[in-house]
Amino acid sequence: MPSIPHLIMAALFxxxxxxLGLVLLIDILSFCSSSGACVRGRICAFFKFTALVVGSxxxxxxxxxxxxxxxxxxxFMLSMSGCLTAVYAILFYIATLRFIKRK
Length: 103
Prior knowledge:
Blueprint: H1 4-32, H2 42-71, H3 74-95
Helix pairs in contact: 1-2, 2-3
């Protein structure tokens, strides 16, 4: 029988992966469709931004939860959170570049 920390970590990892997968699916569908997007304008952008923040937050929280309960090394936990934050910032920057967006 898994303990409560195991269930919390699994829920955070699964929820974060599911949300980020949903955003990826929406982006793929909007890129491949002839109209350009399923919902145009600020509503879709707000949903994708909110979903990216919540999904990446769930993944980082699950990762930090794992590092706190099982690794018990602060240096690893801080370096992991710093690397993940940098990766998400870079991916968000690449996603908002003007020459990548379709006209």
